[in-house]
Amino acid sequence: DVYKRQMSLGEMFAFLIYIINVPAPVRKLTEAAGKLRLGMVAWQRIDRLFAEPTIGPEAGRCQDKLSGQISFERVRFSYTPDRPVLNDLTLSIGRGEFVIIAGASGAGKSTLANLLLRFYDPDGGRICLDGRPVADWQIHSLRRQIGFIQQDALLFACTILENIRYGRPDASLAEVQAAARVANAHDFIVDFPVGYNTRVSEGGSNLSGGQRQRIAIARAVLLNPPILLLDEPTAMLDSQAERQVMQAVRRAGTGRTTILITHRLSVIQPNDRVVYLDGGRVAEQGIYSQLMAANGPFARAVRFWQQNGEKEKPT
């Protein structure tokens, strides 16, 4: 058109500039519309959360020191009315016991942790600590006496020292180091140029998964809780990191009631007490070697795992 003198050179450049610049704001408008829809969904979820009945920190009156005895008595629970997760589950854990809760995904393993910490209350039955219903315990006191370690350890953007001291900011350096030794973390911490003063990136991204878990275990050990509750602490780790974390878990569990929730059967030792869940119930429980000899559902799960590695047992 310029060649035929139907459009000036300036008009052609103006047209090209429009073609280059117009798509960008249009694209931003469509992106903003998508973010707005996501924001509306998020707000609806937040609104539903705020509408839920809350358990205030003043709920319950008992603030005694726990000994670590736990019982689930015909506990029923579901997140949605038509999909029960726990079905008349009964389980007793004695003071100072080391218990492994195993089972396929959806068996109700993590739900036990949620109920024990009173993130939810059961729909039926009851949970008791030292013989008292869990609702009788003052919630702040209850949670402070349970060292809870999740699959993805939560670390803060501060020093390793401050992360371990999080629950006890007045703890001395010697106490922090003692807890880190129990958690199998002291050696790798002192290998850093500034040791315990090493800054942790947001979420612990400058540390390996095994290092993050061991720092989380050290934090729990420093609190010295009578109950240690671990929910899939090795699920995202390789075999070497798994061994290091499990060494730390077993040392940290000495002298306190320890519940290890896992689907990784490689962490179980012959003399461990295992509670195997299936369909929201205790399908089997006992010493690992005895369960293997009984050739029940747990033994079948172990054989499936041995043949298929980390693949889940089909349900």
Describe the structure.
- The chain is α/β, with parallel strands linked by helices.
- The chain has 11 helices and 10 strands.
- The strands form 2 sheets. A 6-stranded mixed β-sheet has the order 6-7-8-3-9-10.
- A hairpin with a 2-residue loop joins β4 and β5.
- The termini are far apart.
- The C terminus is likely disordered.
Brief descriptors of the model:
single chain, 315 residues, alpha/beta, 6-stranded mixed beta sheet, 4-stranded antiparallel beta sheet, globular, disordered C terminus
Structural class: alpha/beta
What order do the SSEs take from the amino end to the carboxyl end, as H and E?
HHEEEHEEHEHHHHEHEEEHH
Low-pLDDT segments, ≥5 res: 311-315
The share of residues in extended strands comes to 15-25%
Can you tell me the overall shape? globular
- Mean model confidence by pLDDT: 86
Helix share, percent: 25-40%
Cα(first) to Cα(last) distance is 70 Å
The total count of strands amounts to: 10
Biggest sheet character: 6 strands, mixed
Radius of gyration over all CA atoms, rounded: 26 Å
- Strand order of the biggest β-sheet: 6-7-8-3-9-10
Number of helices: 11
